[in-house]
Write a structure and sequence with these properties.
By secondary structure, the protein is mostly helical. It has helices at residues 5-19, 25-35, 40-64, 69-89, 104-112, 115-125, 130-149, 151-190. The protein contains 8 helices and no strands.
């Protein structure tokens, strides 16, 4: 299959909701305050590489341990479900250690290319053409880079209330995506 604009837009929106870079602006601003300069370019490039590599190698790793993509997608739907609950309810189910430096590690992984993103990539691969997912990754990485570069300005314009509203809206969208992934892949498992 070739380029499909609908698949690219849908995959881009799904990744945008999962990456939640807008909702991460408070974290990014806090990192900037703690450690100074954030390397936006490096973080974006490394996140893109991680995502593309996992898109291709992730399925092989699953096959190696005997798990099919549909089963992984169902597990991914659960992860997306819990991420959506965190976004909607404003709670934190998963707590990571606070990073000491704002380098590639806290930004590229796990903030941008974290567990939810990796799971989503394999879930998307079960439904969409790889070339369209790569296009969606590139679109999202460009957006991530722009947000990282201008996080202070965005925070000033939106304010904390605006960021919270956007986070909750994308939480509801992510919840709907999780339900769709779950239903679709459960059906695929039993067919």
């Amino acid at each position: 299959m070739g380029f499909d604009l609908k698949e690219i837009v849908t995959a881009s929106l799904i990744l945008f909701a999962v990456i939640d870079i807008i909702g991460s602006i408070p974290i990014i601003v806090d990192l900037r305050r703690k450690v100074g300069h954030i390397q936006s370019e490096k973080a974006a490039i490394v996140a893109a590489i991680l995502m593309v590599v996992f898109l291709f190698v992730g399925e092989e790793i699953l096959k190696l341990i005997g798990i099919d993509v549909n089963s992984f997608a169902v597990a991914g739907a659960f992860i997306l479900f819990f991420l959506a609950l965190e976004m909607i309810l404003g709670i934190q189910l998963y707590k990571d250690d606070a990073p000491e430096t704002a380098s590639i590690v806290p930004l590229a992984f796990p903030l941008v290319a974290g567990a939810g993103t990796m799971t989503t990539l394999l879930s998307l691969r079960a439904e969409y053409a790889t070339v369209n997912i790569i296009a969606a990754i590139i679109i999202n990485i460009i957006f991530v880079y722009l947000v990282l570069k201008s996080s202070k300005k965005i925070e000033t314009v939106l304010g904390s209330q605006g960021i919270n509203v956007i986070r909750k809206i994308f939480g509801v969208i992510l919840l709907a995506i999780a339900v769709k992934l779950f239903v679709t892949n459960i059906q695929n498992l039993f067919n």
